[in-house]
Structure formats: structure tokens, C-alpha cells
Amino acid sequence: MPRFLATNATLGMAIGVAIFAALLWLDTGGIASRIARAENPILPLFLIAIPFCLTFGGAVAASAIMLLPYRRKFAEDPET
After folding, report:
1. 4-25 pLDDT per residue, tens
2. What DSSP string describes 14-55?
3. Which of 4, 8, 52, 69 could join 20 via S-S bond, C-beta 3.0 to 4.6 A?
């Protein structure tokens, strides 16, 4: 189960990084040009990228848990 969660969280983080890269590449709202002109561009990159990674990583891990097959622990016997 931990490996399952880690795999899905890593996949979600990769999706978050990809969306962040797309925002920079498309220069949505002029964000890439503002970061390029910043005195220290590393800090704004991390301040934007880390929440994307955490949000998408958590969302993918949560959706993976919700989509697990469910088996009732105390199911009634179908023959009776």
C-alpha cells in the first residue's frame, strides 16, 4: 500500500511540474517574464512549483485510494 501511494503521489507531482512548466512556457499572465526579471528567480520558481506538486500529488493519491476496489468485511452470505 505505501508503494502504491508513493507511485501515485509521484505521478501527481510529475503532472504538477508539467502544468507548471506549461504555465511558464505559455507565459500565462506574464508570469515567466516576471520571474525572468526577478532579482532571485529561484525563489519564485519554488514558491509556485511546490504548491503545484503538493496539490496534484495529493489529488492523484486521493483519487487512487478512492478508486481501489471495495470489498465488504462483513458481507452477508449470498446463498441465504
Report:
1. 899 999 999 999 999 999 999 9
2. HHHHHHHHHHHHHTGGGHHHHHHTSSSTHHHHHHHHHHHHHH
3. 52
- Name the nearest CA neighbour of 52 among 7, 13, 25: 13
Separation of alpha carbons 50 and 22, rounded Å: 15
Q: Give Cα 71 to chain centroid, integer Å.
A: 27
Spacing of C-alpha 74 from chain mean position? 34
